[in-house]
Amino acid sequence: MSDLQTREEYQAIAASLTPAATAFVDGAFRPARSGKTFASTNPATGETLAEVAACQAEDVDFAVRKAREAFDDGRWRCKAPAERKDILIRLAKLLHRNRHELAVLESLDSGKPIRDCATVDVPDTINTLKWHAEAIDKLYDQSAPVGEDAMALIVREPIGVAACVLPWNFPLMMLAWKIGPALASGCSVIVKPAEQTSLSALRVAELAMEAGLPAGVLNVVTGDGPGAGEPLGLHGDVDMVSFTGSTETGRRFLRYSADSNLKKVVLECGGKNPAIVTDDAEDLDLVAEHVTNAAFWNMGENCSATSRLIVHEAAKAPLMERILARARDWRTGDPLDPANHLGALVDRGHFDKVCGYLEHGRAEAEVVLGGQGADGYVEPTIFDAVDRESRLAREEIFGPVLSVITVRSADEAVTIANDSPYGLAASVFSANGKRALRTARAVRAGTVTVNCYGEGDITTPFGGYKQSGFGGRDNGLQAHDQYTELKTIWIDLSDRGPTDAVD
Ligand SMILES: NC(=O)C1=CN([C@@H]2O[C@H](COP(=O)(O)OP(=O)(O)OC[C@H]3O[C@@H](n4cnc5c(N)ncnc54)[C@H](O)[C@@H]3O)[C@@H](O)[C@H]2O)C=CC1
Ligand code: BAL
């Protein structure tokens, strides 16, 4: 049954909110030491939602010190696994109890449509935390096959202080994708939300205290990239950074690491994701449904959005007719109206960037749908006859823009799909099982879906090849690898005496 409320109910919740907007460190809300703030605005209205603490290096230092203390004294990592599990499950329950408020906060701060915040973002956040919490007391260490004279234990230990640097497109979901496994592993965590969308992370940190998470274990440092992100990346006492965002900023984190303490860096970056439709694709209604969702869901502000439709010439006309029919039904407007599929883009800067691509597309390709933006909103847009060398075909637009490229064979489709610096996600539509699987194998991307579109689920690792990712995966038990170190403990079992042992 749908959990959606009416627009009026959402508006009433919005009117009742007084979001916390200072940093959250060592169990308490704290302003930036400088006293500086920046406005967090509702991109749909331009209204200021809160003045958020503009943290800088000194605030980051304090947060790292508190996180380190919490890690070193073992108040979290040394708790019995079942107790840590219970606290995180309590947090998941508190998120569920506050789900309408969280969905509204997320929608107001980011421009995302409430229908998605309520039915996807918040439920996925809760499920992710629950799933990692449940794993805590079910993961076993290993013993290596080293023979009779020794025993070698391979144990997994929390890495220490983990910094989670978040994007603005899925503020809650990305928070959960990172703090879920980080906290489950026993780390202390410092979250740096994107400056556009700080509010939901602060609320989650507050609820985590209510759930019983010890102070200092989950901290949120608000601020922009150069002010708060850079000092985190350069900090000598941060053990790892898990980052989601642009490839350009991802590169910076590698440099920060090289210039400081060689902290582990895991990057989940951009994508230019192809959907390949072969000449034998069946059920074009279903294909059209998947491609429309993949391209326009979350206003295309999604690293795994399908932004290139690579379609065989034989399937193109009937498929395009079906995609257009669906996309025309997607309503754009007030994010708090559950009837709307698309809300506002995250901020004016990003809106202007997407509009720049629309202008380019109008000049270089054939507009078959949309093609204009107004007042922070961009309607679903489809460009046909896109040149595979053009900016539309190669650059991440991060808006509701689909570029169509026509091909004459499956091999040509794969060549074009792989002709990209990115390799995050792809989908393949073909009724021929062998061909579909061969194509899925040939595409260089971290997630390839067959006859559907998606990102897998919490049980499957998510991340990219090439410049889409580096160093690890989110989701699945593989996500725990990010936040843990492996230690070998070698125990001598031989009956040689000490003199023999050094011979
Ligand atoms: N893979 C993904 O999910 C995302 C991709 N993007 C892509 O990136 C483009 C630009 O968006 P931005 O908001 O500028 O992304 P961004 O990569 O700059 O921001 C992501 C995070 O990095 C932080 N950051 C920014 N500059 C930093 C610096 N110099 N040092 C340390 N931290 C820094 C930000 O404060 C934010 O928390 C988008 O148009 C889109 O193409 C953006 C967000 C998410
Ligand atoms: N779609 C999940 C990852 C991201 O867009 O940032």
UniProtKB/TrEMBL annotation:
PROSITE patterns noted in UniProt: ALDEHYDE_DEHYDR_CYS, ALDEHYDE_DEHYDR_GLU
Domain of life: Bacteria
CDD domains: ALDH_GABALDH-PuuC
GO molecular function: aldehyde dehydrogenase [NAD(P)+] activity
Location of the active site: E268
Domain Aldehyde dehydrogenase: 32-489
InterPro entries for the chain: Ald_DH/histidinol_DH, Ald_DH_C, Ald_DH_CS_CYS, Ald_DH_CS_GLU, Ald_DH_N, Aldehyde_DH_dom
Keywords, sorted A to Z: Oxidoreductase
PANTHER family to which the protein is assigned, alphabetical: ALDEHYDE DEHYDROGENASE-RELATED
Family: Belongs to the aldehyde dehydrogenase family.
Name of this chain's protein: Aldehyde dehydrogenase
Organism: Ferruginivarius sediminum
